[in-house]
Amino acid sequence: MMTTFAALLGALPLAFGHGAGAELRQPLGIAIVGGSYRLAGADVVHHASGLSVVRPYAACHAPPNGNRAPPIDDEPIDAPLN
């Protein structure tokens, strides 16, 4: 998202620029700004919908201990081995 917004803000001078040659660069700036804006919106929607699809599947296949390390035994380190 940060990269998208950086590209969007960087292309604003192209889209709204004035001066010599601005009429040639303006369509490129508009395309970059519009595409970045649309891509950011699609990114937010697709990530949210993808998580809502994957999360129930991941919950039913999670390890029984909640993906944590096994508990540590309370035996002292110098306990005799059997």
Features:
about 80 residues, 2 helices, about 65% helix, about 0% strand
Distance between the amino and carboxyl termini: 57 Å
**Radius of gyration of CA atoms, rounded to a whole number:** 27 Å
Give the structural class.
mainly alpha
Helix and strand sequence:
HH
In terms of DSSP E residues, the strand content is under 5%
What is the count of distinct domains? 1
Shape call: elongated
Treating each run of at least 4 consecutive H or I residues as one helix, how many helices?
2
How many strands appear in the DSSP assignment? Answer: 0
State the major sheet: none
Q: Averaging pLDDT over every residue, what do you get?
A: 78
Low-pLDDT segments? none
Q: State the helical fraction.
A: 55-70%
Describe the protein.
The protein has 82 residues and is mainly α. The chain has one domain (2-60). 66% of the residues lie in helices and 0% in strands. The chain has helices spanning 2-16, 22-60. The longest helix is centred in the middle third of the chain and has 39 residues, at 22-60.
Chart the SSEs and their pairings:
Elements: H1 2-16, H2 22-60
Helix pairs in contact: 1-2
